[in-house]
Specification:
The complex is a heterodimer of chains A (152) and B (415). Chain A contains six helices and three strands, in the order H-H-E-E-E-H-H-H-H. Chain A has 152 residues and is α+β, with helices and mostly antiparallel strands. Chain A has one domain: Sufe protein. Chain: A, CATH 3.90.1010.10. Chain A has a three-stranded antiparallel beta sheet with strand order 1-2-3, with helices on one face. The model of chain A has no long low-confidence stretch (mean pLDDT 91). In chain B, the strands form five sheets. Chain B has a seven-stranded mixed beta sheet, sandwiched between helices. A four-stranded antiparallel beta sheet of chain B has the order 13-14-17-16, covered by helices on one side. In chain B, strands 1-2 form a two-stranded antiparallel sheet. In chain B, helix 4 runs parallel beside helix 5 and helix 11 runs parallel beside helix 14. Chain B is globular, with a radius of gyration of 22 Å. The C terminus of chain B is likely disordered. Classes of the chains: A alpha+beta (152), B alpha/beta (415). At the A-B interface, helix 1 and helix 2 of A face helix 12, helix 13 and helix 14 of B.
Chain lengths: 152, 415
């Protein structure tokens, strides 16, 4: 029995690479922002911590999590695109990614910017896994929202 | 003679393909497939005698009422209840347990009292009791699981104090397949004056169950896991207990006489069936019970034990894949939970789906058991039923070998 190639769309090498060797592992000791996400459907968990510099840009990122390959790889990929961004820019990134997961397309410009993240587009063909792919991203959005509330 | 090939012909869905390959349905602990007789009973009701029950003098109403009450009688006979009046139709196991929690328990469990459950419970037999304990000021205690995944009854006498009002336990774990010694626990509960509730969602569909032999006060199970439709379930309770219990939901059908100020209750069990009940699904559950009874539950159990034994042998060939559950098949149902340390159950389920094999991945609505006792974030689970075959077990094992190869290959490509 041969495995169908659709699986290769979902489990692209770059995704499995992030799953095996997640980037930015480990939580920051004294983070400015912290978020925890949980997907009760399959028990995926992501904890995300961010440190800001004097100008309010993201200077440090650390995450820990456990769960399926898609949830962990997606969170790992996200962490690689946060350093140097303002919180508004990070939110814009979350919006872009969510838009694509919900049926939109990356623009050619975004594809250039996002690099490895584009590999996650294959998840769209497996609707049940979209929630997994979004976990790290919604966790980031929650962390930013919570941070803003404490500053109000 | 138990003829699986013949049985499979009764289940239209088993003919279908997924992703271009034959369906191998191994998610029976979640829900079972339905034989043609059950589907037919449902459409017969809607095509030929759809009417409301227990009211109206016309022919259709009488036929519908007779069929509905006959279904109740079939269910009663199936679990050897003394009378159809011991059977309350509800939506599912969860509703049956909540009915007891919101009526009997509210009246009988208070400050300083104790409720005992086991570490193996499904959320449906844990969360309602957390609520009852919190609201009433009672304490919720746990019966532990042994390292061999069986129920530890060694400290039963210390656990069941005179303050204990209820012991609520699973008859068969939906995660581990463990069959618990319910008769022993029920007897221990009764010795301290407590009542006993059995969550039989996984046992009644798969083995002979006799409520009088077990002597339980309550038993809850779902129709859809035993070849019946979704939306119909059963609460069994002893007659004297049902008599003294307050109604759960109030409204039509459950009343005898109503004034603008007050109302009196209909007889048991109608007292607990407010509003128009789920008539069609109850009748179809009756057809499911007929189907199971014709096969014989001893034979169903024997078939599943043989299949589980074969599955355990095949799993033993996979070194990388530990399983959870009792090794003694006399105390184990047809459930195999397994784990691959480097591959998340959700990913296992995804790859298996592509080769037609349907299993469950996750915490199986038993989060504390999976995370705190098995110490894994989730498991993958294959669960068998009366129509599964050794060839389907082989398909599962082949699929798991593909999973190992796929993720192994994918990892090595990187290097």
């Amino acid at each position: 029995m041969q495995l169908p190639s659709e699986l290769d769309d979902l489990y692209q090498d770059i995704i499995l690479d992030h799953y095996r060797s997640p980037r930015h592992q480990g939580l920051l000791h004294d983070p400015d922002l912290r978020g925890e996400g949980f997907n009760p459907f399959c028990g995926d968990q992501v904890v995300l911590t961010l440190g800001l510099d004097g100008a309010g840009r993201i200077a440090e990122v650390g995450f820990e999590g456990q769960g399926c390959s898609i949830s962990q790889a997606s969170a790992s990929m996200l962490t690689g695109h946060l350093e140097g961004k303002t919180l508004e820019e990070a939110e814009a990134l979350v919006r872009t990614f969510k838009g694509v997961m919900q049926g939109g397309e990356f623009t050619p410009e975004q594809e250039d910017d996002l690099g490895d993240i584009v590999a996650l587009e294959g998840v769209k063909r497996f609707p049940i896994r979209i929630k997994c792919a979004l976990l790290g991203w919604t966790t980031l959005q929650d962390a930013i929202s919570a941070y803003r509330k404490t500053r109000d | 003679m138990y003829d699986v090939a013949k049985i499979r012909k009764d289940f239209p869905i088993l003919d279908r393909e997924v992703h271009g390959v034959p369906l191998v349905y191994l998610d029976n602990a979640a829900t079972s497939q339905k034989p043609r007789a059950v589907i037919q009973a449902l459409s017969d009701y809607y095509e030929r005698y759809n009417a409301n029950v227990h009211r109206g003098a016309h022919t259709l109403a009488i036929e519908a009422t007779d069929a509905y009450e006959e279904a109740r009688a079939k269910v009663a006979r199936f679990i050897n209840a003394p009378s159809p009046e011991n059977i309350v139709f509800v939506r599912n196991t969860t509703e049956a347990i909540n009915l007891v929690a919101h009526t009997w328990a509210v009246a009988n469990v208070g400050a300083g009292d104790r409720i005992v459950v086991t570490e193996m419970e499904h959320h449906s037999n844990l969360v309602p009791w957390q609520h009852v304990a919190r609201v009433g000021g009672a304490e919720l205690k746990l019966m532990a699981m042994t390292s061999g995944y069986e129920l530890d009854t060694s400290d039963l006498d210390e656990l069941l104090t005179p303050a204990t009002k209820l012991v609520a336990l699973t008859h068969m774990s939906n995660v581990l397949g463990t069959i618990t010694p319910v008769a022993e626990v029920v007897a221990a509960a009764h010795r301290v004056g407590a009542l006993a509730l059995i969550d039989a969602a996984q046992s009644v569909p798969h083995m002979p169950v006799d409520v009088q032999a077990l002597d339980c006060d309550f038993m809850a199970f779902s129709g859809h896991k035993m070849l019946g439709p979704t939306g119909i379930g059963v609460l069994y309770a002893k007659a004297d207990v049902l008599e003294e219990m307050d109604p759960f939901l109030r409204g039509g059908e459950m009343v005898l006489e109503v004034t603008y100020e007050d109302a009196t209750w209909n007889q048991v069990p109608l007292k607990f069936e407010a509003g128009t009940p789920n008539i069609g699904d109850a009748i179809a559950l009756g057809a499911a019970v007929d189907y199971l009874s014709a096969l014989g539950m001893d034979d169903v159990r024997e078939h599943e034990v043989a299949l589980t034994r074969y599955a355990m042998e095949r799993f033993a060939e996979l070194e990388e894949v530990p399983t959870f559950g009792p090794s003694d098949l006399s105390v184990r149902g047809g459930v195999v939970s397994f784990y691959m340390s480097e591959i998340h159950p959700h990913d296992i389920g995804q790859v298996l789906d592509q080769v037609g094999v349907a299993i469950r991945a996750g915490h199986h609505c038993a989060m504390p058991l999976v995370r705190s006792r098995l110490n894994v974030p989730a498991t993958a689970r294959a669960s068998f039923y009366l129509y599964n075959t050794e060839a389907e077990v082989d398909a599962l094992i082949d699929g798991l070998n593909q999973v190992l190869r796929y993720f192994g290959d994918a990892a090595s490509k990187r290097a």
